[in-house]
Design brief:
Elements lengths: L6 H14 L9 H10 L4 H19 L4 E2 L1 H10 L15 E5 L26 H8 L3 E6 L11 E2 L3 E2 L1 E2 L2 E5 L5 H8 L5 E6 L5 H7 L2 E2 L23 E6 L2 H11 L18 H6 L8 E4 L11 H18 L2 E4 L8 H11 L16 H11 L3 H24 L3 E3 L17 E2 L2 E2 L8 H7 L4
Parallel strand pairs: 2-3, 2-8, 11-12, 11-13
Antiparallel strand pairs: 1-3, 4-5, 6-7, 8-10, 9-10, 14-15
Length: about 450
């Protein structure tokens, strides 16, 4: 229950009214809509046109989907022919949206940067290819911070994306446009990316579902070496519910020739089927940690909500609650900072345009260029120790680890990043992401 302040109250009221007036299919979940498509109760063209009306009514208030491609979508929907034996996760012509850090052939591809403001993609990203092979229809690109950098979604090309529950607040990031689109009913399913929390934080801020999949599950053209001690940027699903997310993960968890590290979902039942049959496989040990063993600060009001949820999960599954348990993350902040900075070493050319990019991008590239081989080696050693601790934790202590996704609730969209939390000084734009960024290192 979030309160709106000042002019945001009027805007949020307009948004809620527009949502209530939306056509029926926009208010249904993806699983139900796909079932209706399969049964012939609605067509892909009808859904595209309904999504267009919805976006025109709502998106001006949140700025979630600044680039649309309805003509392309209608043309592909008219050509779509469904297979006799549809594969796992087939979507039957369901419209989807794609984060603007991923390419969709023939569609504007800005990465939220003035350096690419007028670019148009000449190819599809692997996950887009997989989705379209699974019967999805792309209708637009969702907003992102410049180059996907940071967890507050704003840029100089399209401006700020705001939270549908209170338009004075951030939607999070960097998949903030995707989360805001789902929450405002302009998309049924969305694709985002995540290195330090970019699928998880906006989902938490916008009350939807985001998942950072295990490395190697979903294809990514930018995939790094499959070595376990690498920090991976991951392409992943976002949805309005866990059931909808399972459907999308079934669709995108496939191998692709452009990503040698991706095996996809190998054997076994689908994620949707596993979810339907979950009652017989509830976890026996649920761990709860408010601060990941003292590795991160978290506001008390966030702890209260999350601890209640963890205890409810343990009670519902009849599991033992292991209070305060966590893998060893004592060096995780340092390790994450070094390994993240290393991924920017090859972006030095951007510094020639430093006046056109956000200062955090300049800082991040410079951090990467200053790293020594000894710095990286020390971080990799620390990462291997963290991976061993993680494996031991899930083997001997718990089946699930519950913890807060963010330090704080959504904050003012004009606050580009937090400088302090619970007495901790947050010295860079990535420090406030620690509840998720340190867990990215587990590669779980």
């Amino acid at each position: 229950h979030l309160m709106c302040h000042g002019g945001a109250q009027k805007v949020a009221h307009q948004l809620m009214m527009a949502m209530r007036e939306g056509a029926p299919w926009c208010r249904h979940g993806a699983v139900e809509v796909v079932r209706a498509l399969r049964e012939g109760r609605v067509t892909s063209l009808e859904l595209i046109r309904e999504a267009k009306r919805r976006i025109e009514a709502v998106d001006g208030l949140v700025n979630a989907i600044p680039t649309t491609c309805f003509a392309r979508a209608e043309e592909r929907a008219q050509r779509l022919r469904h297979p006799t034996n549809p594969p796992r996760g087939y979507l039957w012509g369901l419209p989807v949206v794609i984060k603007d850090t991923l390419a969709v052939e023939g569609v504007r591809f800005t990465l939220g940067s003035l350096l690419h403001e007028h670019d148009v993609a000449d190819r599809d990203d692997p996950v887009v290819q997989v989705l379209e092979e699974k019967g999805a229809i792309v209708i637009g690109k969702t907003n992102t911070p410049e180059f996907g950098l940071g967890s507050n979604t704003y840029n100089k090309v399209f401006g700020e994306t705001v939270n549908p529950f209170d338009t004075s607040l951030t939607a999070g990031g960097s998949s903030g446009g995707a989360a805001a689109a789902l929450a405002s009913g302009t998309a049924w399913l969305a694709i985002g990316t995540d290195l330090g929390g970019s699928l998880r934080i906006p989902a938490a801020f916008c009350s939807v579902v985001g998942m950072r999949p295990t490395p190697g599950l979903v294809p990514n053209a930018g995939s790094r070496s499959a070595e376990r001690d690498n920090l991976h940027s991951i392409v992943g699903p976002m949805a309005r519910s866990v059931g909808d997310l399972a459907l999308l993960l079934d669709a995108i968890a496939e191998p692709h020739e452009e990503d040698a590290n991706c095996r996809g979902h190998v054997g076994g039942e689908s994620y949707s089927a596993a979810l339907e049959g979950h009652a017989g496989r509830m976890p026996g040990r649920v761990a709860w940690s408010a601060d990941l063993g003292g590795a991160v600060p978290v506001e008390p009001r966030v702890v209260e909500v999350c601890e209640s949820a963890a205890r409810m999960l343990a009670a519902a599954s009849g599991a033992d609650l292991v209070d305060g348990a966590c893998m060893d993350l004592s060096r995780a902040r340092e390790v994450f900072h070094v390994l993240r900075a290393e991924t920017f070493k090859d972006k030095a050319a951007i510094l020639r345009h430093a006046d056109k990019v956000k200062p955090e991008m300049v800082w991040q590239i410079e951090q990467g260029l200053e790293l020594s081989e000894a710095d990286v080696a020390r971080a990799r050693k620390g990462h291997r120790q963290l991976l061993l601790s993680t494996a031991d934790f899930f083997a001997n202590t718990a089946d699930i680890l519950c913890c807060p996704c963010t330090m704080v609730p959504p904050f003012d969209v004009k606050t580009r990043w937090l400088r302090e939390c619970e007495g901790w000084e947050l010295r860079s734009y990535i420090d406030w992401l620690m509840p998720t960024s340190v867990l990215s290192l587990t590669n779980w």
